Amino acid sequence: MKSENNSFRISFHLLKSLIASLIIIVVPWIVFLIEQKFDTSFHVWGIYPRSVQGMPGIIFSVFIHGDIQHLLSNSLPLALLSFFSLYFYPHAGWRAVLLIWLAGSLWTWLLGRPSYHIGASGLIYGMAAFLVLSGWLSRYYRLIAVALLVIFLYGSLFWGIFPVQPDVSWEAHAMGVVAGLVAAWYFRHALPQREIYDWENEEDDNENSDNTEPPYWESNYTFPHNIQS
């Protein structure tokens, strides 16, 4: 019965993460289709640094893209990295994504060039940075594997934080990375930790007849006293 309950929790958590990541990617597509349908552009809802009219972009800019190529290039990494963040970090994932989204956008508004900054690239860079640093901080082999996979798939993103292309918001990329690193460090106590085996503690658990392990995010997680939800 316990094994069945654990399987249900794992399946339900997987489903929630998939649905959430799907919503995250569907919204920009809906916005883009509305723009095409009504022959309009929402770029004025992007981030325009250090201006009152550009402040709504702190929230809305991630949903707005310049063209179909821009949206296509962001779609897969946005879906994949958001899924990784939510599934492998169930206690810190949502808070980390929100922090990266809002802090990265705010810092872009404060430090960016006087132009409209749109797109989800800043969030993508931030989630990638969060996953890589969090995997290293956790010392947990599953999360380290996720971090290495992110590096393998998106390691070339590193060059996007430099002012190489004038029409690309390297500021949003750089601020996203900073926000991702800050999120990983801030939520470091909420990360799933690796399992401590009996031989490491020199303890004998032969008295425990039920060897069924709960999901790793439940068995290895301890709530820190200094983290406010």
Task: Give a description of the structure.
The radius of gyration is 20 Å and the shape is globular. The C terminus is likely disordered. The protein is built from nine helices and no strands. The protein has one domain: Rhomboid-like fold, CATH 1.20.1540.10. By secondary structure, the protein is an all-alpha fold. It is 60% helix and 0% strand.
Roughly what is the average pLDDT, rounded to an integer? 87
CATH class: Mainly Alpha
Tell me, what's the shape?
Answer: globular
Could you describe the largest sheet, including whether it forms a barrel?
none
CATH domain topology = Rhomboid-like fold
Counting structural domains, the number is 1
* Category from helices, strands and their pairing: mainly alpha
Radius of gyration: 20 Å
Work out the helix count.
Answer: 9
Determine the N-to-C terminus distance. 32 Å
How many strand segments? 0
CATH homologous superfamily placement: Rhomboid-like
SSE order, one letter for each helix or strand: HHHHHHHHH
**The CATH architecture:** Up-down Bundle
- Uncertain spans: 219-229
Give the helix proportion (percent range): 55-70%
Q: What is the percentage of strand-forming residues?
A: under 5%
